[in-house]
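User: Sequence in, structure out. Go.
Assistant: Echoing your sequence, followed by the structure tokens.
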Amino acid sequence: MRVSNCTVNSPWDDGICPKSSFALGYARASENITISDCYLSGNYQLGSVIDGTWKPMPPEHARHATGRIKCGTESNGGFKNITISNCVFDQSRGIALETVDGAICEDITITGITMRNTFHCPLFLRLGRRMRGPANAPIGTLKRVIISNITSYNASPLPSIIAGVGGHPVEDVKISDVFLQQVGGGSSELAARQPPDEEATYPEPTMFGELPASGFFIRHARNVEMSHVEIETVSTDARPAFWLQDVEGADFFRMRFPAGRAYALDRVAKFRSFGSRSMSDVSFDDLQSRTI
């Protein structure tokens, strides 16, 4: 499957959305897919993109707008060997990789993306336990994902999310050369919040409620690596840039953070942060809970 050189304005439904299912009577993955050179939005009146008038939807519509590239939500068969590149997002819900019904989601590359005015978080990676499919199907996997060369401007207070479930982590995620500007404004009370797991809930970035991070919320994950990533907040934000819980293997290299705490760590092992101008290098292998 190849999608390229397209303009998508999707005020009510997701824009480009590979799905997988058991409709054939067996698990068949969506695979070998390239999505490139596309413009996505979710906040222009229907027909106005085609006729060139580009009329925005009323302000109250923003909470209903979608428009994004998403693997899911239906996810029995899986998503494999997918590349998303050179796309522009304007007033959308960003990029979502979701497997909540037992799908194997693996070997995904995302590169060369610009985003403006994202309604939710720019990046949403979710492995869940909804399991709406054949009985006794095992929980799926979400692993081997590379994300690079991303710039996001004026996104909502919601951070990007990498979230698995207990005993089933999101694995092997590499993120590099990324600039994320969030509107910020998080309080110290929010920084102390412990969001619920919501293992069987429909996967949406808002599923956990407000989150205690300004840049990335990472829970139930293994082998996460980030390099040359900058988090910026327009308004002062009391939350740490990165909130990690139940994570094994986390490497951060040459990061930039807003003023304040960089990391809140809860049950994190094999952690390294080095080469960042605003803080000293930190490295430990044993399981720790601390703020940095």
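User: And one key feature?
Assistant: Residues 78 and 103 are 4 Å apart (CA to CA).
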